[in-house]
Amino acid sequence: MRFSALITVLxxxxxxxxxxxxxxxxxxxSVSWTEETCYLGDTDREDGSVGQQALLSGARKxxxxxxxSNDVESEEDFEPKIIPYKQVQPQSPPKKLFxxxxxxxxxxxREPLFVGVLTSKNTLNTLGVAVNRTISHHLDLVIFFxxxxxxxxxxxxxxxxxxxxxxxWNMYQTVKYILEHYITEYDWFYLVQDDAYIEADRIKELxxxxxxxxxxxxxxxxxxIGGEMEGKYCYGGYGFLLSRxxxxxxxxxxxxxxxxxxxxxxxxxxxxxxIDYTNTSCVSQHEGLHYYHFELKKNSDPSKEASEEFKRALxxxxxxxxxxxxxxxxxxxxxxxxxxxxxxxxxxxxxKNVSVEAFEGNRSAHWPIGVTAPFEPKTRFEVLNWEYxxxxxxxxxxxxSPKCELKGIDHVDVLDVMEVALxxxxxxxxxLLHMKKQSLINGYRRFDPIRGMEYIxxxxxxxxxxxxxxxxxxxxxxxxxxxxxxxxxxxPYVTEATRVHIIIPLxxxxxxxxxxxxxVFATNAFETSExxxxxxxxxxxxxxxxxxxxxxxxxxxxxQIASLERKYPTIKIxxxxxxxxxxxxxxxxxxxxxxxxxxxxxxxxxISSNINSEFLNRCRMNSINNxxxxxxxxxxxxxxxxxxxxxxxxxxxxxxxxxxxxxRMSFDESCFYNSDYMSTRTQMVADVQExxxxxxxxxxxxxxxxYSSLHVxxxxxxxxxxxxxxxxxxxxxxxxxxxxxxxxxLEGLGSRSxxxxxxFEQEQGNSx
Length: 768
Fold this sequence. Notes:
Elements: H1 2-36, H2 47-56, H3 70-76, H4 103-107, E1 111-118, H5 124-135, E2 142-146, E3 158-161, H6 167-181, E4 186-193, E5 197-198, H7 200-208, E6 217-219, E7 221-222, E8 233-234, E9 240-243, H8 244-251, H9 254-260, H10 266-278, E10 285-286, E11 289-290, E12 293-295, H11 308-311, E13 315-317, H12 322-355, E14 387-389, E15 393-394, E16 404-405, H13 408-429, E17 433-448, E18 452-465, E19 470-482, E20 500-506, H14 514-526, E21 532-540, H15 542-546, H16 555-567, E22 575-579, H17 585-594, E23 601-604, E24 609-610, H18 613-622, E25 628-637, H19 640-643, E26 660-662, E27 670-673, H20 674-683, H21 685-690, H22 694-697, H23 700-707, E28 711-722, H24 735-747, H25 752-767
Parallel strand pairs: 1-2, 1-4, 2-3, 12-13, 20-21, 20-23, 21-22, 25-28
Antiparallel strand pairs: 4-9, 5-13, 6-9, 7-8, 10-11, 14-17, 15-16, 17-18, 18-19, 23-27, 24-28, 25-26
């Protein structure tokens, strides 16, 4: 038993003992090898023994330097080298990384097509204008090149004048101008004379299918005069297409072409230059794509041309006058429209045929075919409402009335829909049946944000057969006016550098908001050097005005203004005093307008608003002189006693639906230019002479809407935050304005759930 126990212990301890023994053995061997390296510098040893010991040295001591035997002798002759101190130069700040303004520039993406029209002083205002009107809205850039021009340039045209009427010189200058200004921005360059009609969409479609890395000279090939030179040039009357790669290769030889090549025609001169230095001849087709053109005969009528060559042409030449240019444009526009309709019908048939194979069958193809499927609401709050209408009335009114007269644009819309419905019915059933409208029984419409305006019409129709028999029937028609392609509407250029003059009307009831307003405005504007001027308008009633020397009700406000001016020496805060019994925005602005230049940008603000740089920039961008005025919809806090009932008030309030709402009933704040105000105010003169009270019953919003042709832009403005304030509604204002003021006060109390909670707690308290 003892022996077996001993064996068990040895088995468990055996590996440990063996490991420790091996460790000691290996450590002793490594120490002996390391000590032998100390004798490598003994010069009495033979070369062979030194070599053997060097081979045996497997390691060196830490912090020791391995070297030859000469290192020991060199240590005795070592002399330290003194390195003079040099002051470390501070590193220059790293260069700021330049990033392109547009992603396309950084990625090297260029626009596809540049179009240059070769014109002259005599034809710029006639044929040049006609070309511009027919192609400019289809292309990104069209430049007109001329030798000389008149002092006045036609509106909406980009004209480059070379200062000389020599045609060869003008062609040289045109190519040089393109190389200097646009060679890095476009892939294809199209040059054409102003007496040619251009089918712009077809030219764009052509370049979209061409490879941009080819040296291509494409147009209508023509033989050189004399026929001695190899190759062909592109005749300029029909226009020609030049690739960017071709122009880049030609760039270094352009000066040689000007000096060495003689020619009577500019297109022939350019063709010689291209062939001589790039070995590229004019072609009319490339990679299966053709450059079609058509020669227009004298006194020909485009509507009577039936040849396929004419219908597929990219350019038509020569065009003698602007009237013929417009006739050609009308013909080709109708032709493209008809082709578009045919393509739509073809696609609809294809969708219908493919939908049969779908899982849901024909039900997968929504009506109308090709138009987006109707909006599907996820909750009952997203259900789209249908508006009911007849030929005289509509049962959904802007002012909330249950029924109102169908007039204006709504009436035009209904008439147009009924006319289209009748035309489509006759198109479907003629010549077997002919239908005439008797009356509209029921009409429904709704706006679907995904697909457009939908209509359902119940029409009373008189149906007449080919044999003359007639009968009155009722037919239900479903129509859709789909949303069209989104277009960017051109707007006048504006900048964020304009100074904003902020006008703050102040009455006795609003003095308590001044301190908070000035603190916020000083932080957001004065400390950031915002390009804005703050002006206070102190409004006194007659009694307060008489006591101003003894007891100025705005003395504390004026002292705060003086204190801010001392704190910020570069800031001046002007103020104007006004005495009136009935405060009126128009009367106040009449006084302020006379004290400022006509190009002044005003922001008529409220004392309870928090104004910051973000909003002021939007005020600058949305107010366009002689074009548009801006009425922002501010975000107003709810009454804190309702929104935070029995809760501590938060220090900062976020733009969430529980904290406030966008006050759509408030029109007090506005941005506009003084010139626009003065011109609109002038339109009121006749009405003011008949009724002076109109100045007190209207506000500035109503004035711009009724008396100006400016765009009145109104939008929610999250950067304009306003504290809760109960507005004292002026009963002298018009009924509509007074109603808006009352409604604004009611909606500003709190949300429905918050008001319901307060009422519930009050009822519980009363019941107990």
